[in-house]
Amino acid sequence: MKSLSLRWSFLSVLLAGTMVFSAACSNSESSSGDEKPKDEGTPEASEQETVKIGVLASLTGALESYGLQTKQGFELGLDYATDGTMEVAGKKIEVVFEDTETKPEVAVQKATKLLEEDEVDFLVGSSSSGDTLAVLPLAEEYEKIMVVEPAVADSITGSEFNPFVFRTARNSSQDAIAGAAAIAGDGVKIATLAPDYSFGIDGVTAFKEAAEKLGADIVLEEYADPAATDFTANIQKIIESKPDYLFVIWAGANSPWNQISDMKLQEKGIKISTGAPDIAALATMEPLIGMEGFSVYYHGLPTNDINDWLVKEHQARYDGTIPDLFTPGGMSAAISIVEALKKSEGDTDGNALIDVMEGMSFETPKGTMTFRAEDHQALQTMYAIKLEKQDGVDYPVPVLVRELAPEETAPPVRN
């Protein structure tokens, strides 16, 4: 043990020099009252005071806009939840973003890097359900909490569920139940159109279940090539099935809206219904003004202080633009992590956090969310809407018909 005078001489030299060496020197001198050296196996103080979060998102490629929305929302969420300090329970928060390129194999590589090299305490992501499903086993293997946002496949909290997975994103069944609540009823005949892969198939399955419970009759399930640009044959089959409504589930730039308009379905007495997408896709839906459907989020739908803060801050930070479809999800994911750490007093142990987060409620831009204990799916508000033309806005605007409460859109437990 060094003498007291020697210790203070050393400390004076250290403080007179650069501060970046303070963390490295902390192993040789303790700041506790008796100045005892630390054990060799004790983590450095700087590591003990940092929470690391690894965020996986499609920051390039076809889903780049979704990834950017999530990233911006997550950054805003951390700022909001920590009152701008980027600290929780006495620990600094550090975030590492990685681009999955919307490729499951890349998502696994980036997640492994985050877990092994960056030694993150949490995973968040991803923009694609395929990417997310590929990464889920790593969360369990490394015993780290993974907050899923914005991937929607039911299987994430269903057949592929593991206890380290919590989802702030809504799932396909919640979309489907909201869609059914907007249009289904006794004797209503509905045809569906969706892409022929898990996103579309899961969505139609859940929609059909919800719509039939409300008394509707599903007269046709039509699936199209996800890469299709010509939907003529699909739409013709729909016309021949003579439904009252066509419910469409779609994601991507190759949407069927223009052909649905060109083939004059609404003039043939077939009403169109779907989920209101992000703003870029809304701009392609001019032919659907008057449509009844549902929305996961549009900035003008929720009425609460957190959403007001989000809209104001987004406009201030991002050139006057408004938050888009997946921005509040990123914010909600960040808020959920901060709230969990407040409750755990900074404990980042994955197993301990499972007990903390199961059944946990927290406030978001969409109101109160609750992680359901059975499958860790966040129950949340959805919105029945109608598309209207508004002065000064160059796309159809989702206008609120009524809020769909979290209990009303709670999906079946499928795990």
TrEMBL record:
User: Which segments constitute the Leucine-binding protein domain?
Assistant: 50-389
Q: Which Pfam families is this protein grouped with?
A: Peripla_BP_6
Q: Sorted alphabetically, which SUPFAM superfamilies does this protein's record hold?
A: Periplasmic binding protein-like I (SSF53822)
Q: Is Glycoprotein a UniProt keyword of this protein? A: no
Keywords attached to this entry: Signal
Q: Where is this region: Disordered?
A: 26-49
The signal sequence is: 1-23
> Does this entry carry the keyword Signal?
yes
What family is reported?
Belongs to the leucine-binding protein family.
The record's annotation in PANTHER family points to: LEUCINE-SPECIFIC-BINDING PROTEIN, PERIPLASMIC BINDING PROTEIN OF ABC TRANSPORTER FOR NATURAL AMINO ACIDS
The protein, known as:
ABC transporter permease
Species name: Bacillus weihaiensis
Lineage at the top is:
Bacteria, Bacillati, Bacillota, Bacilli, Bacillales
